[in-house]
Design brief:
By secondary structure, this protein is mostly beta strands. It is 0% helix and 48% strand. The protein has a 5-stranded mixed beta barrel. The relative contact order is 0.30.
């Protein structure tokens, strides 16, 4: 049986690395987003990342998401 889990993808530039989160700038909307992830230590400011998440985003400032998967990419 196929895995049919639907995820949303965000391509972004890392602005700030914290112990369990990244502050990123969405490449398409230029909006800052706080991304919760246990893998924050794997990334550096200036990295471009591809973030898969459930599609749920808080309405806080900045909005927040929880990453399912993150990888380096070029936007």
């Amino acid at each position: 049986m196929e895995n049919t889990t639907v995820t949303t993808v965000l391509c972004a530039k890392v602005l700030c690395v914290q112990c369990s989160s990244l502050l990123v700038c969405d490449c398409s909307s230029q909006q800052k987003v706080l991304v919760h992830t246990d893998q924050a230590h794997c990334f550096s400011c200036g990295d471009y990342v591809r973030i898969e998440y459930s599609g749920a985003m808080t309405m806080s400032i900045p909005p927040q998401i929880s990453a399912i998967r993150i990888s380096r990419t070029c936007c």
